[in-house]
Amino acid sequence: MIMLIKYLLFVLLVVFMISAAMYSFSSRRAADPLIKGLKRSIMNMLLGAMLVTLSLMSMFIFRGSTLNVVIEAAFLLLGIFNIFSGLRSHGYYSRLRSGSGS
Question: Taking 60 as the threshold, does the pLDDT of residue 62 lie above it?
């Protein structure tokens, strides 16, 4: 069961990484600043999910060391912060795009 979880987390990590790269490239090619902001906010959420997944993977692979726990916690907190930051940015750019922004 643990091996299944490790493989699932690895697949999720690869999917998040490829998706973040695609959104990064497409946001750089977008001419409209609102579209660019929306794509970058999605990229930020994907990078946060990638960091959370990386943290969970390291929790299953490495055990016990204080340094590992500190690094896992840092990745987890940074990933959660990126997800919420991306959600906030996505809401902001979505409101601007719909015309009801402040």
Answer: yes
